[in-house]
Amino acid sequence: MAMATPASSARDEIDRRFMAAAIRLSRRHLGLTGTNPSVGTLIVREESGGPIIVGSGVTAVGGRPHAEPQALYEAGERARGATAYVTLEPCAHHGRTPPCAEALVTAGVARVVGATSDPDPRVSGKGYAILRKAGIEVVEGVLAEGAADLMAGYLMRSSRKRPEVTVKLAVSRDGRIGIPGVGQVVITGEISRRQVHLMRAEADAILIGIGTALADDPELTCRLPGLEAHSPVRIVLDAHTRLPLDAKMVRHAREVPVWIAAAAGCDRNRRAALEGAGVQFLATEAANGGFALPELLEDLAARGISTLIAEGGAETVRRFLDEDLVDRVALFVGPGEIGPQGLLSPIRPDRMREGFRLTREARYGEDSYSEWVRKA
Ligand code: AOF
Ligand code: ZN
After folding, report:
1. Per-residue pLDDT averaged across 106-113, rounded?
2. Residue ranges around ligand 1 (CB below 6 Å)
3. In a domain, 235, yes or no
4. For strand 280-282 and strand 258-261, is the pairing parallel, antiparallel, or unpaired?
5. Ligand 1 pocket check: which of 66, 123, 131 to mutate, most ligand atoms within 8 Å of Cβ?
6. Residue from 13, 46, 47, 68 carrying the catalytic annotation
7. Over residues 123-141, mean pLDDT
8. Average pLDDT for residues 163-184, to the nearest whole number?
9. Average confidence (pLDDT) over 98-127
10. Residue nearest to atom 4 of ligand 1 (CA)
């Protein structure tokens, strides 16, 4: 029985609703798909009671299979005449499986609603073209910004050959991030801590300077129940290989990787000892008395890192900011004050640096959270 087609504004609304659901689904494997973006796909049929989801898929852990064949498999024959919601333009290249665009054609979907287009030269524009050529109605750019936000790492690595860099800071109400010589100071609460661990689970790598590594001896892993295996690669900027062998990070370097950026002339014995503990060394170049950060980021992208969180300390974060290498700022502000002896944050909660726009605000218990992204 043919179903009545909803009027166009009602249909736009339905499209946005299902695309929002596909974007939420795509978040599930964020940080787990290697250099592939985590894509969400929903297959939706118009039934007499309204539209219903008959298939769903998210890019598998490791990057394959892609989202579309999984969703189509679940939908089976019910994909015929249905609408597919895809958060990324369906691929047009032959990988381990035929192109997803062809799979959608073969399955007989009537419409494809897409969010972002794919910068991958094997796909860009070609995926949508395959669909249109087969007579499928294609709507592009639905909630594109929301989908691109979750794929920012993939998009950045594809277009600029470097990871997307997020600076994460926990700041007191009076704009301080700690007390010199005291080590870790409690600034934010338990809910914020969990949010930070979730950020870690979704990121490929996390980076700190050696000063913070020595002062805090952090683990930088994700310790949320059930997500322990999702910890990011831990990177330390450590020109003179000062990271101790008994640092918590080093002790578990075989389970969760630790990469050190050291100066070319660093102590060979220390390097060998750290390597013996499972630490890997990055090839780095010096610039202005520090590391050449753009080159370091390029190297990380070449190693498959698409998203990087820079967690501190102040000096390291300031260098990323000053070199205009920060794409996103995640700012957690606690309720207490540290006072004038405290170390000033490179970003003040009441005075965000120029060039960023506020995209999200939340309250986590007594803390406030704001997220800023680089202006286009
Ligand atoms: C899709 N659906 O779920 C994803 C896509 O190494 P391969 O063969 O898996 O190809 C990687 C490319 O596939 C990647 O650069 C991007 O263009 C696309 N990712 N495409 O149709 C998906 N993850
Ligand atoms: Zn594909």
Report:
1. 98
2. 36-37, 39, 59, 63-64, 66-68, 88, 90-91, 95, 100, 118, 120, 123
3. yes
4. parallel
5. 66
6. 68
7. 97
8. 92
9. 96
10. 66
What pLDDT, in 10s, does the model give residues 28-76? 999 999 999 999 999 999 999 999 999 999 999 999 999 999 999 999 9
Q: What is the pLDDT of residue 1?
A: 47
Q: Which ligand is nearest to the CA of 119?
A: 1
- Which of 154, 177, 196 terminates a domain? The answer is 154
| Res. 4 pLDDT band, cuts 50 70 90 | low
pLDDT for 223: 93
Residue 1 lies in a domain: no
Boundary (domain end) residue, out of 112, 131, 154: 154
CATH code for the domain of 63: 3.40.140.10
Distance 233 CA to ligand 2 centre (A): 27
Residue of 279, 278, 272 whose CA lies nearest to 210? 279
Report which protein residue has its CA nearest ligand 1's atom 3.
66
3-state SS class at 90: coil
Residues 6+ apart with CB under 8 A from 93: 99, 120, 122, 123
Provide φ and ψ at 126, rounded to 5°: -75, -35
- Nearest Cα to Cα of residue 364 among 321, 336, 335: 335
Q: For 205-235, write each residue's pLDDT tens digit.
A: 999 999 999 999 999 999 999 988 899 999 9
Domain with 277 in it: 162-374
Separation of CA 39 and ligand 1 centre (Å): 8
Is position 255 annotated as part of the catalytic site? Answer: no
Half-sphere exposure of 82 (CA within 13 A, CB side): 29
What residue's CA is closest to ligand 1, atom 18?
91
